[in-house]
TrEMBL record, chain B:
Keyword Transmembrane set for record: yes
Protein name per its UniProtKB record: ABC transporter permease
Top-level division of the source organism's lineage: Bacteria
Classification via PANTHER family: INTEGRAL MEMBRANE PROTEIN-RELATED, MEMBRANE PROTEIN
Keyword annotations of the record: Membrane, Transmembrane, Transmembrane helix
Claim: DNA-binding is one of the keywords in the record: no
Regions that span the bilayer: 21-42, 108-132, 153-181, 209-230, 237-255, 286-308
GO cellular component: plasma membrane
GO MF annotations in UniProt: ABC-type transporter activity
Length: 305, 316
């Protein structure tokens, strides 16, 4: 399958300072790709190079096989983006703003504009001035302008910035919808793992302008991986003993809970074992800690590197 | 081409969606109205001549001659009026009463205000996009940066021309209401390079407005360049307006040097070659000034274009 976007040894220097070093990765149609890194790691710079706002010092970026640096107009035709904040003309209504951007690309009908407005759920406020919009509404109008021309790649720079939990959830839902139903490749940047791991298929971690790793986000069906299981059980000391005796795994106590690292298929057996010994179970929580561990391991606790 | 017109349309919509643009038109109309009312109520040069205008003019000239003889300090001021009246009598032309055309001609100086407003628009049309952050959305469309810059510049020119036409029409309307109008294109008597002559008022108005337009376009292009270069509209507005007003002072300060004739402001006022005026620095000709202006103009546009198309759009 041809990648929707392909970065080939992309470098960016400003003066003598190298701010992006040999970045290479691919994003495929229908995939949500998370671009993760602490503030100042070079996420926005990379995104600016993807859409041609900044020149690539060395290397190239291909969009559906077309080079951004050599054939800009044809390449960027496939891209819709919000770079940093979703800024629009505050003195014009949402509708006028969308009309403005629609006029810049031939073939966008009023029907298409209405379709996009419906998709982001802005029908009610579309004739109000954008200056009066809340941050959440601005994010939506930003997504709407990015989708006007049916791009095959959607780039969203920190789309959850400043949104409340309900807004974040909504953004997450329609990003997934776009990827799954319209086969759009979506690139989402963030400095918070917790915000994007729920919506992404893969996450690329960047630090100091270098790509550290690209990880697949483990879904429920991934049974090979070790899961961290926390069980609130009483009495807890007996439980530790029971587990260590019955299974060949080590158990510890964390915050008054029984903590075990094990595979998903073992969990029912552990619970049965605990029940058999008539221990009282209040809660069983699993979390896939590996990605978060990796993130912190690589980025370090101090995220402002 | 279709694309080009859509972009122009976009820029016009953005410009006229803001109240500040409309307020410029309102201020301009207000000042023209005020100047009309002041002329109407306080000016004493509005007398009309009847059928025996020859006697009236002669009587007036005698009166002027008397006053000239009495007043030693300012007496010479009457010489212009006396000479003009004599021209009327010699050529047997009946003086026209003051009317809308002459009002519009007198107010040609108000193009200075049009320049001021055009500079404000030119200075903010690019930098505002940076200020609002919308430049990022403009530049990620399949349109070359050069084209976007060009449509913005053309939009400034359209604005200045609409404002100039507006100012001219308002002058005519207010003038016609207050002073009446003497036909479609009456001839008036003005002092040209070779003494007094009779010219069509419309051609005189076109010349005056046209010459002021040169200054307007050069200064607007300068503001446009500063705005593209520094991406900051207050700086562009400030610098352009300062130079517009201080330009003459700078030139007169440096006029003892020969190279001063290459300074932009020594050349922007093409009125210096009209009528009986003499150029700021000896030896300058109309052709020379036009050449200097064209060179500056091309440099301004080139700098804007290079800066806009080559530079990265980085964060704030």
């Amino acid at each position: 399958m041809q990648p929707a976007m392909q970065l080939k040894n992309v470098n960016k220097s400003i003066g003598k300072k190298k701010i992006i070093k040999d970045l290479s990765f691919e994003i495929y149609p229908g995939e949500v790709f998370g671009f993760l890194g602490p503030n100042g790691a070079g996420k926005t710079t990379t995104i600016r190079m993807m859409v041609g706002l900044m020149k690539i010092s060395a290397g190239d970026i291909l969009i559906n096989g077309v080079s951004v640096s050599k054939n800009y107009k044809q390449a960027v035709r496939q891209v819709g983006a919000i770079v940093e904040n979703p800024e629009m003309y505050p003195f014009m209504s949402g509708w006028k703003n969308l009309k403005h951007f629609a006029r810049m690309i031939p073939g966008i009908t009023d029907e298409r504009i209405k379709e996009v407005i419906a998709l982001v759920g802005l029908e009610k406020a579309i004739h109000e001035k954008v200056g009066k919009y809340s941050l959440g509404m601005r994010q939506r109008i930003g997504v709407a302008q990015a989708l006007l021309h049916n791009p095959s790649i959607l780039i969203l720079d920190e789309p959850t910035n400043g949104l409340d939990p309900a807004g974040i959830r909504e953004i997450r839902q329609y990003i997934r919808k776009l990827a799954e139903e319209e086969n759009v490749a979506v690139i989402v940047s963030s400095h918070l793992l917790s915000e994007i791991e729920l919506m992404c298929d893969r996450i690329g971690i960047i630090k100091n302008g270098e790509l550290v790793t690209v990880e697949k986000v483990a879904d429920e069906s991934n049974e090979d991986q070790d899961l961290q299981v926390l069980i609130e059980v009483s009495p807890i000391d007996t439980a530790v003993k029971v587990i260590e005796d019955a299974f060949n795994i080590s158990a510890s106590i964390e915050e008054n809970k029984l903590a075990i690292k094990t595979k998903k298929e073992i969990i029912p057996q552990i619970i049965q074992e605990l029940v058999k010994h008539q221990l009282e179970i209040y809660e069983v929580v699993t979390n896939n800690a590996s990605l978060e561990d990796k993130f912190f391991e690589m980025i370090g606790e101090n995220t402002i590197a | 081409m279709r694309n080009f017109f859509s972009l122009i349309n976009n820029e016009q919509i953005k410009l006229y969606s803001r109240f500040s643009t409309w307020s410029m038109y309102i201020i301009l109309a207000g000042i023209i109205l005020a100047s009309g009312l002041i002329t109407f109520f306080f000016s004493d040069g509005l007398e009309e001549y009847g059928d025996n205008w020859r006697e009236e003019l002669q009587a007036k000239n005698e009166e002027y001659l008397e006053m000239q003889a009495e007043d030693e300090v300012f007496g010479d001021l009457y010489a212009y009026d006396i000479a003009k009246n004599e021209y009327y009598l010699e050529n047997d032309i009946k003086p026209l009463s003051y009317d809308a055309w002459q009002f519009a001609l007198e107010n040609a100086g108000l193009t200075m205000l049009v320049s001021l407003f055009t500079i404000i628009v030119a200075a903010s049309i690019v930098s505002s996009e940076f200020k609002w952050g919308t430049i990022k959305l403009l530049l990620i469309r399949p349109i070359s940066r050069g084209k976007i810059l060009w449509t913005k510049y053309v939009n400034v020119l359209i604005f200045s021309i609409s404002m100039l036409i507006f100012s001219f029409l308002i002058n005519l309307i207010i003038g016609a209401i207050l002073f009446g109008i003497n036909g479609l294109s009456p001839n008036i008597v003005i002092e040209g390079a070779n003494g007094f002559e009779q010219v069509s008022v419309v051609s005189e108005i076109l010349t005056k407005y046209g010459l002021n337009m040169v200054n307007l376009i050069i200064m607007a292009t300068f503001a446009f360049m500063i705005s593209t270069l520094f991406r900051n509209n207050s700086m562009a507005i400030g610098l352009a307006i300062f130079l517009m007003f201080a330009g003459d002072i700078i030139v007169s300060f440096l006029s003892k040097y020969d190279w001063a004739k290459f300074i932009l402001f020594a050349n922007t006022n093409l009125n210096q070659y009209m009528g009986n005026q003499s150029p700021v620095i000896d030896g300058m000709t109309l052709g020379f000034s036009i050449t200097v202006l064209v060179v500056y103009y091309i440099i301004f546009l080139l700098v804007s274009w290079l800066s806009f198309t080559r530079r990265d759009v980085a964060g704030h």
